[in-house]
Design goal:
Elements (H helix, E strand, L loop, with lengths): L14 H17 L17 E6 L5 H12 L3 E5 L13 H8 L5 E6 L4 H8 L4 E6 L5 H15 L6 E5 L6 H12 L3 E5 L8 H9 L3 E5 L2 H4 L5 E4 L10 H7 L7 H4 L7 E3 L20 H6 L1 H12 L35 E2 L19 E5 L2 E4 L11
Parallel strand pairs: 1-2, 1-3, 3-4, 5-6, 5-8, 6-7, 8-9
Antiparallel strand pairs: 10-11, 11-12
Helix pairs in contact: 1-12, 2-12, 3-4, 5-6, 6-7
Length: about 375
């Protein structure tokens, strides 16, 4: 029986498994005609169901997961509004995940509270994929980012990567920074003090062997960058409207600022954008964010194929290779990494942690370099938000 794997954090995948997934995503991209615009290859019906549990708004992530499952030949069920679910009656994430495991073969969950995906994975009997849990992580966005960067620049190694905007609450940069550090990349955080990268995320970058430099000036930093990763200032993550108003619109990438960048620079953005990238930038070849978003479908096809142990083959007909397989061609995922040990402690005080609404959860902590951090939201003890 193949091992059951979840994707809650990018640390759940080894470097070799990430590269394997990106290679498989290239095959998926060819199968669906991502680059040439041709009609996708024939799809064999697949007896697998994806459940999407979206407690928070989403366009790209939800639709690309649904598109990925449909393009693999499977089916999709779920909800895009928690008001239309039993969450309004008080049902916990743990109970929802346990129940939905009986209806589907894999679960994708997005939730506004950090740690919700871990709770779902701990309770489900099928693979669980984190589609974003509060301000903590968004691992499938990072896989999409890696797929885009490798396609655009031909490598993931030794790059200068600028992360600009909301680095405090931006879960995409919390996932991306330590992974790029593993490939020897230099990470430059471009943000005002109010939106600076959390110390625990910087510690993960350095633990991965990377370097982290902070600056407040986009104009000064852009000239040396290989990748500029813009982010929006996320109104929904701020404790108060007044805090948001003080920093909104702090960075706007314009065509004039982009001219300071190298010709080989690529601009990424997880989207949606608000006002941090001027529309005039879109026509510049260096603007890769719409190509980046399109790559989310083959990446999520590859991830679903691996977690569901679908038979991947070298199919000479040009099909994706599922349903009528004969010879494996892609290295399957192995055993999950050993879980990080936890210690008991007081309840987490972070109001954005899943434990704030599901107090039945045990108070568990990881022992890290910076001290004890919550096993759910990964905030250090004594740091409320």
């Amino acid at each position: 029986m193949p091992p059951k794997r979840h994707l809650i954090s990018l640390s759940d995948l080894s470097t070799a498994e990430v590269l394997n997934l990106l290679d498989l995503a290239e095959r998926m991209a060819a199968a669906i005609g991502l680059d040439d615009g041709k009609a996708g290859a024939p799809v064999h019906p697949l007896d697998r169901i994806l459940a999407t549990l979206f407690y928070e708004p989403s366009t790209r992530t939800r639709l690309s997961f649904e598109s990925a499952m449909l393009r693999l030949g499977g089916q999709v069920l779920g909800f895009a509004d928690p008001a239309a679910s039993s969450a309004t009656k008080g049902e916990t994430v743990a109970d929802t995940a346990r129940m939905v495991s009986a209806y589907a073969n894999v679960i994708v969950i997005r939730h506004p509270l950090a740690g919700a995906a871990k709770v779902a994975a701990d309770s489900a009997s099928v693979p669980v994929i984190n589609a974003g849990d509060g301000a903590r992580e968004h691992p499938t966005q990072t896989l999409t980012d890696l797929f885009c960067i490798r396609r655009e620049l031909g490598t993931l190694e030794g790059l200068k990567v600028g992360l600009c905007g909301d680095l405090k609450y931006g879960r995409t940069v919390h996932s991306l920074a330590p992974v790029m550090a593993q490939w020897g990349c230099e990470i430059i955080g471009i943000a005002p003090d109010e939106l600076a990268m959390p110390e625990e995320s910087i510690a993960r970058v350095r633990a991965a062997g990377g370097t982290y430099t902070a600056t407040a000036s986009l104009e000064e930093a852009i000239g040396d960058l290989d990748v500029l990763y813009m982010t929006r200032v996320q109104r929904e993550r701020f404790p108060s409207p007044e805090d948001y108003e003080r920093v909104k619109g702090v960075y706007v990438l314009t065509p004039e600022i982009l001219q300071r960048g190298k010709e080989t620079l690529r601009v990424l953005h997880p989207l949606p954008r608000v006002d941090e990238i001027a529309p005039g930038v879109d026509a510049d070849r260096r603007a890769a964010y719409f190509r980046q978003a399109a790559g989310g479908v083959p990446v999520r096809m590859a991830l679903l194929a691996l977690l569901l142990h679908l038979p991947c083959t070298k199919d000479t007909s040009g099909a994706a290779g599922f349903g009528k397989a004969h010879r494996p061609a892609i290295q399957p995922l192995g055993e999950a990494p050993a879980p990080e040990p936890t210690v008991s402690g007081p309840p987490c005080q972070n109001p954005k942690c899943i434990t704030s609404t599901e107090p039945h959860l045990p108070a568990e902590w990881y022992e890290r370099e910076l001290g004890l951090v919550c096993a759910y939201c990964e905030r250090p003890m004594g740091v409320p938000q």
